[in-house]
Amino acid sequence: MTTTLPTPHATDHLDVLESHALFILREVVAECERPVLLFSGGKDSAVLLHLAAKAFAPQQLPFPVLHIDTGQNFAEVLDFRDRAVEAAGARLVVASVQDTIDQGKVADPGHLGSRNRLQSVTLLEAITTNSFDAAFGGARRDEDKARAKERVLSFRDAFGQWDPRQQRPELWQLYQGKVNPGEHVRAFPLSDWTELDVWQYIGREKMDLPSIYFAHQRDVVLRDGMWLAVGEFVEPRPGEDVVNKMVRFRTVGDANCTGAVVSFADTIETIIEEVAIANVSERGATRGDDKFSETAMEDRKREGYF
Q1: Has residue 6 been placed in a domain?
Q2: Comparing 147 with 44, which gets the higher pLDDT?
Q3: Residue 9 confidence (pLDDT) above 70
Q4: Is the N or C terminus of the chain more exposed, i.e. has fewer CB atoms within 10 Å?
Q5: Which ranges of the chain would DSSP assign to H, the alpha helix?
Q6: Residues 252 and 135 in one domain
Q7: Which structural domain, as residue segments, surrounds residue 41?
């Protein structure tokens, strides 16, 4: 009698990426006392939260989820944030940039001014107030050249500053996770992922996402080479025409500095096809906060940014 053995599941590149991310999550939790997961409501932080739930199942997450609320978010993203955190059974901590402004710790840029850069102050206050010694983030190396310079474990000083000259080696995926007094660590389990990897994983795992990632009709204006969604935080300026286009967002940020792309991709499958042929990263194409200078991201990371 011949016994037919089940065909083993073939390991693909997503399995490898997932396994490495789970390892990083577990290692940091083992090394640190009070970790937290940074959650913007975007696709990368959604994947990170999904991975964290897998890493510690069947138990609940051993750390809270932290959202830095600038007050200029897309409503669809805030709705998704609440759904995702509730589904994960996690505790949500919200730190408000408006509170930081009201306390006089940063200057108010005005109703239509960008608050994106102010997030660093609010984030560092939240880390200090809650005594967090590790913060998981969804940054990827392919997003920006400054992110490509950073290690998986990014150690920050008492002021949250990143010094690329003081990075610890990570040879053969061996990590030195000890946090020295006065430091905290930012951990990036998705560092080696690409935008295409993220979307393929979302499709495989059948994950929920904010609706703005999928093509939809929206009133937009063309400003600084980007299609900005007209609304509470973006008003047309003299000479700007409001047009209605089929668009989607490749990345999530403040409404007044995150541009949409013209697209008819309204399913994960068609988005994967679109991303596969893209030759510009999502931040490079649609994030106005990265256009201050050639070193905009690196300058902000030195200030304590994500």
Answers
A1: no
A2: 44
A3: no
A4: N
A5: 13-31, 43-56, 75-88, 97-102, 119-129, 145-149, 195-205, 268-276, 282-286, 296-302
A6: no
A7: 13-196+296-302
